[in-house]
Amino acid sequence: MNITLFASISLNGKVLLAENPLHQVPNEMPGDFIQRAVAAGCMIIGRKTYEMIAQFPAMLEMFKGVEIIIISSNENASTAYKVMANEAVAMAYIQQQQYDTVLIGGGTSIYNTFLQHQLVNTMVLNYVPVMSGTGGQLGDDPALFSTWRITNQSTFPSGITQITFVQEG
User: Fold this and answer.
1) β-sheet bridge partners, residue 154
2) Predicted local distance difference test score (pLDDT) of residue 121
């Protein structure tokens, strides 16, 4: 199974958080993100990311046909989508449903949970040409160590460089 983490990162390595008004989502990113989610058929996000997306019903409609799984300790986080308590429950469900690809769409705690448990095998990182004093950090577990190699790199007209990494070994 291919589990792909999709994140936007500042030049100084901060995860750009959608709920931060200073971290504007680059124009190219929502379309690319939605396209990847539709291709995967399954997407995992945290409660805050879901709440941010849910503010834009037209955007949420673009995920039609995508199974959205929300990881939250609040089982009432959504009545429209599956809410699961943690990554282990979500992974058991995903394996039961036999998905080939799953997109991890954020936020930072969801990214780090999946990285910590060595569940991610592909990362698509969008390097946005901004410096930010706030934001999350990928790989915040001191015991985490993994090696990756670049499989693709492209630059969008806005200057965002998207690099795809796959885990080695």
Assistant:
1) 162
2) 97
